[in-house]
Each structure stands twice: as C-alpha cells, then as structure tokens.
Amino acid sequence: MRKLLALILTVSVLTMAMASYFHLTILHTSFVPANTAPFDYSSGKSEDVFPARLAVFVNQMRLFNPNTLFIDTGNLIRGTPLSYYSAKIDYCNLNPFVEAMNAIGLNASLIGSEEFIYGPGFLEEAISASEFPLLSANIVFKSSGEPVFSPFEVVEIEDDGEKLRVGIVGLVTEVIPPWQEAEFFAGLSFVDPVDAAGDYLGKLREEVDVLVLAYRGSNEEAHEIMKALREIDVFLKGPQLTTKSAIVDGVVISGPGYIDESVSKIDIYLEKTGEDWKIYDRSVDEISMSGFLPDESVVEIFRGYNDQIQKLLDTRVGFAVGDFYVEDALEARLRDNPLAEFINRVQMEVTGAKISCTSIFDHATTGWKTGPITIGEIYEVYPVPSTLKVLELTGEDIKEALEFNAERFVTDDGLLTLDHWSVDDYSNYDMWEGIEYIIAIDRPVGERVLSVWHNGKPLDMAETYEVSMSSFRAGGGGYSMFENKPVVRDVKLQIFEIITDFVQERFAISPQVDNNWSVGTGFIHTVGWNETLRSISEMYDIEDSEIMKYNPDLVGVKSIPAGSELIVYRPFFQDK
C-alpha cells in the first residue's frame, strides 16, 4: 500500500511539473471618439481625453503582462471635428484616427454603425492605413454572399515556448443601413448576426484556445446572440451607455463605459496538460482612465491637426440677437425652448416640411447667448453625424411617436425626471415644431398626449404629413413607428453643416419661442348636466382662459352640451 501511495504521489508531482500555465489579458474599448489628442472640441477646453490616456494604460498593461490584446468594438470613424476635418476639408490618404490606434497597438476593431458615415471611399482609405483588421462577419456582398470585410482574426501569442491561439469574430447589428445614406451600402447586405457567426464560431472552436466574439449593437440584440451562440469564452459588446460587465455561465461579458469613462480589463488563466489548453479562472474589471496622463507620442501625431481644427472651430459665422440658451436640462424637455425651436425651424426651412422633430443631445448642452456664434459652438449643439430626411407619416404615426416620447418621463423618489434610456442618451427624447401638443405625465402610459393640433385643427390620424428629422431618427433610432416609412426628400449634408450654413447666410439670428408644446398634469373632464365653463373652472380652481386655451373648440360656443369632453391641464411652467 505504501508503494502504491508513493507511486500516486510521484505521478501527481510529475503531472504538476509537466503542466503549463498561460495568463491572457484582453483590453476592451467601445465607441472611442476620433478625437485623438488631449482636447475637447465641443467645450473648447484642453482636457486629457480618451485615446492619449488610453495609450499610457495599454503600454502599462503590456509591461505587466506581455500577453495582452487590445480590441475595440467599432465606430472609430465617428463624426467629431477631427474626422469631419480629415474627411471633408483635408482629405488625404493619412487617416489620423487610424494612425493613433496604430500607435497604441490595436489588435482588432469592428466595422461599426458610423464607419460608413463619410462614404465607402473614406472607409477604404481607413482600412488601407490601419495596421489592424476591421472585422465583420455579417456584412456581405449581395451578389455572392461573401464577406466584404475580414470576418475573423486569429492571433497567436508565444510565451516561454508555449503558444496560445486566440480567435476573434466580429459582428455588427443588421439594422445599420436605415440610419445612413442608402448609396453608401449599395451592393451590400447586413445578414442576421447569429446566422453569420455560427459557421465561423464552429470552425474556430476547433482551431483556437480562446474564442472571442465582438459585437456592436443593442443590448436586446446582444442578449439574443448570447442565447444562441454558446461556444464562446469572451463576449465583447458595445456600445454601452453604462458599465455592464460580468461572468455568466463561464463566459466573460464585457461592456465598457461610454466613450472615455473606462476600459474593460479581462484576465483569462489557462492550464495545459497534454495538448489542450483549459480555462480554469477568469475575471473582468472596469478601469477608469481618469488617473492616466496623456501619451505625448499620441498627442504629437495630432498636434498640427488640433491647431487647424481649433482655428476652424473658432471661426465666427454669425451673431445671436438674444439667447438661444438652456438654463436647465430637464426644464428644456418640459416646455418649448429657443434652442430646440431654432433647430426645428432650420430643418423645416431647408426641407420644406411643415413639421419637424429634433433632440438636444446632451444634458450639458447650453447653446449660446447674445453675441458671436462660432462653428465650435454650433458643433457643441449638434455633434451627431446625421443628415436630414423628410418622412411621410400619418397622424397616427405622429401621435404614436409623441406617446412614446411621453413615456420617457418617470418619477424617482418623488422627483420628476427622464428614464434611464433618455438620461444615458438625450437623443432618445424629441421636441416637435409645426404641431401643437400637450403631455400630461400623471396619466397612464399610452394616454399621456392630451391633444395634438396642426394648422388650427386636430391632427387627422388618417391623413399623411411630411416630417423633417435626422437620418438617425428616420431609420428608427428607437422609434419603431418611423421604420420603413416613405422618404419624401433627402438632404445629403450633415445637420451640423446645415445649421452652420444657415447661420452664416443670415449672420444675425433671433430666438423664437411659440410655446407650441408643454408637459404638465391633466385629465379629461366629461361635462355634466347644467355645468358651465364658469362652474367647471371653479371646480378645478383654474382660470376660464386656461380651459379655453387647451379646448379651442369652445371659441364661439354659448353653452357646453352635457357629455362633452374637456381637457383640464396645468403645465409645469407657464409660457414665457
């Protein structure tokens, strides 16, 4: 028995001595802006923005663990002044945002929703200049079904005589095309991500030791992909407006914070006995970039660009005769304001549509006060790289959109606010011009829009109307009632450019607020026998004029028949 125990102990010790171990680190970013030096173009302030700090962090992680991969989940070519400048003003083979990622040592990225924003030619130049692959398994040629871009990448890492193979498959949402210009996608198809990835994942699972799936799309789509594709070890998803990383059923799920808040750091620990590597431990953490100083080599690449871009942004194009200013972010979503009305009126004039909707995209956006207006200040108001479209919508579509908008209001600890979807991204809340409407947030969801009028009469639910909006919203952008609606007109300029041209042509602009909409509380009162306007106003302690204001049909009526329905409404803020 002692000899047997000794033999077992000897075999165990030899086995441990023969075992090999490998530590793999994956750094994951998502929605990295094309602003690649320590400067915030929208605010005009010098700041340590993301990519320059990211370079220092990545270098430190590689010093700590040379077996470190850096993967991004797309939209490297997004509509910031730097990408706008390099695409529209100083177009050349050099793509500064790609050069920055080359300098940092990006291992792979995805083809994201905004990679097509300046057309296929600009994207091709970016790909040719990159020293890393841009992946997408589900963008294919319509004619052949073959992938347009590299569907996957296999990275082989050597350490102390051992080799580890990491496979990375890239996917993107299949609903990108409606958001942007149709001609940019001519000849291309966006196929179902699950169907596209299935074959690649099955094949790579046999060839690699760690299988990574990188996906750019909504949380809902990501959840469905996770349920369908279980062969993976790591799931990188983006963009995430809040930090959501976890380990679920042995799969590391990474969702780094929005833009420059954090980087996901994933650590995979493997053991090799025989020929196969096996993961025995894993972790994921969110690392804030706030404590890292900018990398001077990355700063230097773009210092010349920054000077030129800043001169562009500092250019005065007009003068505000009055304030186009947002004092309070929530109040601006509760009543008509001059900034939203200005954007809508520009959209209506440029497109000829009689109705328009727009967003104020950030809670920190303030607009401008009386005085000169620069290109940089216009960019701060409209930083989203969307063009203008005019959709043909029915009155029912518009009413449904307003009700969907009204759902955004919630009460949190007794305080009125917007829901998390809208707080995370203010572009999810629209303000309208060309119609008159009131929203009562104390009513049930789906019944909060008390009235909608157009040209002095109630909006006809069966009639069609032309509505101007951003190309993002026209493709849905969360508003399903706009999807696949007829496009009447299409303005092939970014709205940022359109507003800039509008101000430059007029030079002096004055704010307007027609108070065509507001948010408050209210209900429908059914008129009883022998009730009068006076008795109803006394019942609810409200002025006759307020009842008349929200019930225009009462004008000229001597008496109100019993059974009539009246709107009793109190806005949170009285008209200015």
TrEMBL record:
Source organism, top-level taxon: Bacteria
Keywords: Hydrolase, Nucleotide-binding
Residue ranges annotated for the LysM domain, each copy included: 523-568
GO MF assignments: hydrolase activity; nucleotide binding
GO cellular component, one term: outer membrane-bounded periplasmic space
Gene Ontology biological process terms from the UniProt entry: nucleotide catabolic process
Gene3D superfamilies linked to this entry: 3.60.21.10, 5'-Nucleotidase, C-terminal domain, LysM domain
Protein name: 5'-nucleotidase/2',3'-cyclic phosphodiesterase-like hydrolase
Family under the similarity heading: Belongs to the 5'-nucleotidase family.
InterPro entries in the cross-refs: 5'-Nucleotdase_C, 5'-Nucleotdase_C_sf, 5_nucleotidase/apyrase, LysM, LysM_dom_sf, Metallo-depent_PP-like
A Pfam family annotated for this UniProt entry: 5_nucleotid_C
Membrane-spanning residues: none
PANTHER family, A to Z: 2',3'-CYCLIC-NUCLEOTIDE 2'-PHOSPHODIESTERASE_3'-NUCLEOTIDASE, 5'-NUCLEOTIDASE-RELATED
